[in-house]
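Trying the structure run again after the queue cleared.
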Amino acid sequence: MRAATEWDLWTTTARVVLDHRDRRHLAAAEACVREVTDAVDLACSRFRDDSELVARTVELERGAEVSPLLASLVHQALDAARLSDGDVDPTLGNHMVSLGYDDAFAGRPHRPTRPALADALDARPAWQRILLSGTFLRVPVGVRLDLGATAKAAAADMAAASITARLGIGALVSLGGDVATAGPDPVGGWQVRVQDRDTDPADHVRVASGWSIATSSTQKRRWEQDGHARHHILDPRWGLPAEPVWRSVTVVAPSCVTANTMTTAAIVRGRRAPAMLRASGRAARLVGASGEVLRLGGWPADDALPAPERAGRSLTVLVA
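Done. Tokens:
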């Protein structure tokens, strides 16, 4: 059996898993994960007034040097926007607020932002108007960054790498639906059960160390606003929740940020997602609105992993 521990984090669950041979390092591995997630939260959370991103809002409207961590997180978010042709947009914070996400999950009141005439006259998407050069960052007036998805995935990547660097062991780190691995392969490899809700279809996959899995779901982080059902993945074209063509999308990639970018973009693209995922060549699994499962890019069938291994040593991916 693996050695594992978990705790509540960011309205989801953090989990660190080690091979049974390394269970004596479990407390130190947890400390590595907590250190990384604390640093990411302090750098870019939009739900705390003392985060660098929020506390320096006025400075960033003019442009200012920021910490290397915040610069890296913004850089990865902008890369995700470019790679997804804007489907994964880090500038949707105001839309999330107006749709009631903050009231539903963070207990924060709506904070209006100031419109800017110069930026309003610029027809480019807001993410293309962000200036990032090295550690110099300028965020247009009235734009509220929400790095949520890519920052959580980046935290998983960094946390798994931190465990291996400090302790010299292999590790799996799961932050909600973002799962990263690093270091030596455990005996039998990392065996992961992918499932959204308990009544949804489940698959079991074996992942080599150094690879990551991300899952995006339209069934979690749901709320109602004025009688309308909402979920947290927005279509940037409209600033509204993407059509729930897929209950969930899961992708395997060399980094969690890459995998998360693809799963989020797939939810946004809806019926166009399979073509995008086939073109990428990545192993992917899509669960349709009525529960049908589409497996692409070599994603194994559920019976590909021997039954004893599925029953006794698989790890559940908790979807964000």
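DSSP finds eleven helices and 18 strands in the chain. Worth checking whether this holds up in the mutant runs.
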